[in-house]
Amino acid sequence: MKKLAVFVGLMACANPVLAETTCYGEGAYRVCATVTQRADGSMSVRSYDTQGNSYSMDTDVYTKTNGDMEVRSYDSEGNSYSIKSWTDSRGSHSRDSEGNTCSILNDGIVMGCN
Fold it and tell me: Which parts of the chain sit beneath pLDDT 50?
């Protein structure tokens, strides 16, 4: 197994990037994956093998000024997933793109978090 970590940060760049590539296999067949993480929480994964196959997945993080957050993931095969989270006077809540919800209320009651 071989790992390579690279930190890319320019003084003019507000979002430093950490990228790490890991390769598995010996001889004729190898699989490599590069994971890139940014300071804002977003990331991307790129994998490829010596037979020309490849796969990619990206995750973006959006934070509103009021603290509400949305995380969206999508891959090279057309799959996608998102989750939104927010806090209000009742507690903390989340809802994902598959219809799952979760609330943790201020009084400690947990609702829908299976």
Answer: 1-13
